[in-house]
């Protein structure tokens, strides 16, 4: 049985807030997963109220079974039939200071809750949720590790599925079904597959472009496992013509990105500033070979990975916070040359006392 009390503590301690309230709508607030430890079921319109002494999951008949089956230590599960039931179960919030996730809760729902609950005040604690979730517990790191193993296994077998003339969409479909075969519950996000020059567009959507020889194949994908994401990118060269200039250029881009990624990993130690890790990789790319790739690394180095694939602050020139043990952040430098192609290599890093390592 999971114990979610330490998670509630991380959010409430020192905040002056009596209860954190997380409410799903027809879509799912990932903080709901965080506070309940439950990754299955839909839990539409379900609510968690988490105080220092007690926490309650309020749901309906639709998800009650799942909730009871996966009930965490320190979390009461209540089944309601009506709005009246709901309000009765939230009586304890009256006159209290309530923290909500302003990044998710719709304004209409917020106004209605405020009218019905009559709290002392309701304040946005979305930053506290983000910060609490930035430092993973070991259970979470294990699940992100399994999600990584799944996508990496698919990467280890994908090259044998390449053939001349296949489309990006076909390859994306193959990759997705491999991840499911290897144990993913779903994808973390829509798989990106880019052939040739399309790889110069970091968020290209797979289309009917056909695979040709001596060109890039960039795949950016993630498996989801028990509610946790992975996010990994590999760039291949399909049937290289090793004597061609194009090949030498592709290989040089690849080697440069690989070295930048390695440099970043070495900088990602506890106590280092997150922006310094981005800058280390960016400087490496900008300065090599008289600046031939200067400015071609066009996005941030990485983002936090967890219940959401973009789980919070990561490595970017603007991320001035200190790295701490058990943060999980993607390390994904790239070089993009319009009309020619791009290379990105991405792995998920866990920050550890003795230095960082890939999951
Ligand atoms: Mn990523």
Protein architecture, described:
α1 packs across α6 and α7 crosses α8. This protein has 359 residues and is an alpha+beta fold. The chain is built from ten helices and 19 strands. It folds into two domains: 129 residues, Creatine Amidinohydrolase, Chain A, domain 1 (3-Layer(aba) Sandwich), CATH 3.40.350; 224 residues, Creatinase/methionine aminopeptidase superfamily (Creatine Amidinohydrolase), CATH 3.90.230.10. The radius of gyration is 23 Å and the shape is elongated. A hairpin with a 3-residue loop joins β2 and β3. The strands form six sheets. A six-stranded mixed β-sheet has the order 4-3-2-1-5-6. A three-stranded antiparallel β-sheet has the order 7-10-11. A three-stranded antiparallel β-sheet has the order 8-9-12, sandwiched between helices.
- How many beta-strand runs? 19
Shape: elongated
Helix content: 25-40%
- Could you please say which CATH topology of the largest domain applies here? Creatine Amidinohydrolase
Number of helices: 10
CATH architecture of the largest domain: Alpha-Beta Complex
The side-by-side strand order for the widest beta sheet comes to 4-3-2-1-5-6
Count of folded domains: 2
Query: What's the level 1 CATH class of the largest domain?
Result: Alpha Beta
pLDDT < 50 runs, ≥5 residues: none
Q: Mean pLDDT, as a whole number?
A: 96
Q: Give the name of the CATH superfamily of the largest domain.
A: Creatinase/methionine aminopeptidase superfamily
The helix-strand sequence is HEHEEHEHEHEHHHEEEEEEHHEEEEEEE
Q: How can the largest sheet be summarized?
A: 6 strands, mixed
Distance between the termini: 25 Å
Assess the beta-strand content as a share of residues: 15-25%
| Ligand set | manganese (II) ion
In terms of structural class, how would the helical and strand content be classed?
alpha+beta
């Amino acid at each position: 049985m999971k114990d979610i009390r330490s998670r509630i503590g991380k959010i409430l301690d020192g905040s002056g807030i009596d209860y954190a309230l997380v409410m799903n709508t027809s879509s799912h607030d990932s903080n709901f997963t965080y506070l309940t430890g439950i990754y299955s079921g839909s839990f539409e319109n379900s609510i968690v109220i988490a105080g220092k002494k007690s926490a309650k999951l309020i749901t309906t008949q639709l998800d009650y079974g799942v909730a009871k089956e996966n009930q965490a230590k320190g979390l009461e599960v209540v089944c309601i039939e009506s709005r009246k039931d709901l309000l009765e179960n939230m009586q304890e919030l009256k006159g209290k200071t309530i923290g909500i996730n302003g990044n998710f809760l719709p304004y209409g729902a917020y106004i209605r809750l405020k009218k019905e609950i009559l709290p002392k005040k309701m304040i946005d604690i979305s930053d506290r949720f983000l910060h609490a979730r930035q430092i993973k517990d070991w259970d979470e790191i294990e699940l992100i590790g399994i999600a990584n193993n799944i996508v990496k296994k698919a990467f280890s077998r994908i090259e044998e599925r390449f053939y001349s003339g296949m489309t990006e969409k076909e390859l994306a479909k193959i990759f997705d079904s491999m991840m499911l075969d290897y144990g993913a519950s779903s994808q973390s996000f829509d798989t990106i597959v880019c052939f040739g020059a399309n790889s110069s567009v970091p968020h290209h959507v797979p289309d009917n472009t056909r695979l040709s020889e001596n060109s890039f194949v960039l795949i950016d994908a993630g498996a989801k496992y028990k509610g946790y994401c992975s996010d990994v990118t590999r760039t291949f060269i399909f049937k290289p013509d090793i004597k061609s200039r194009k090949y030498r250029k592709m290989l040089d881009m690849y080697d440069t990105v690989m070295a930048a990624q390695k440099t970043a990993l070495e900088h990602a130690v506890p106590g280092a500033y997150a922006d310094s890790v981005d800058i280390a990789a960016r400087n490496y790319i900008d300065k090599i070979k008289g600046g031939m790739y200067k400015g071609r690394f066009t996005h941030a180095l990485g983002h936090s990975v967890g219940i959401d694939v973009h789980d919070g602050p990561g490595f970017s020139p603007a991320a001035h916070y200190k790295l701490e043990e058990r943060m999980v952040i993607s390390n994904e430098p790239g070089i993009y040359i319009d009309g020619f192609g791009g290379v990105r290599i991405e792995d998920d890093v866990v920050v550890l006392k003795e230095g960082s390592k890939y999951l």
